[in-house]
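Fresh eyes needed here. Kindly weigh in on this sequence plus structure tokens:
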Amino acid sequence: MGTLAHDLHVLVRRMDREADRRLAALGTSYSRYVVLLVTGEQPGLTQRDLAEAIGVSEPATSRTVAALVAGGAMASERVPGTGNRRALHLTDAGRRLVDDASAVLGSSFDDLARSLGIDPEAMAADVRRLAETVEEG
């Protein structure tokens, strides 16, 4: 039996791998989907803000953003008067990719939890509360 921390880590890794498997048909990954999803919800974020929002290092975020910009899913525009700060936005292709990926992922993980007698909304609330408490230190 693992600890809660270990079990959550294993669960997240398995969910990420399954999402990657499902999104491969669209030519994307779960990590890229998350970047696109957050950028779509919060247009104008800088890479630093995006990295913080998704909990990934700035260099990893920079590589992902560069690939998405090169692929035409995102646009990066210099913010006037801020030096080299760049605001991120989805392109039409990026919005379509988010919609397609969201349809592929659907509510499958929620449905799986329900099939096990777990309320996914309550579980998500507990996980958010735990994450916020850990963040507060």
User: Anything to note?
Assistant: Helices lie at 4-23, 30-41, 47-54, 58-70, 92-105, 108-115, 120-136.
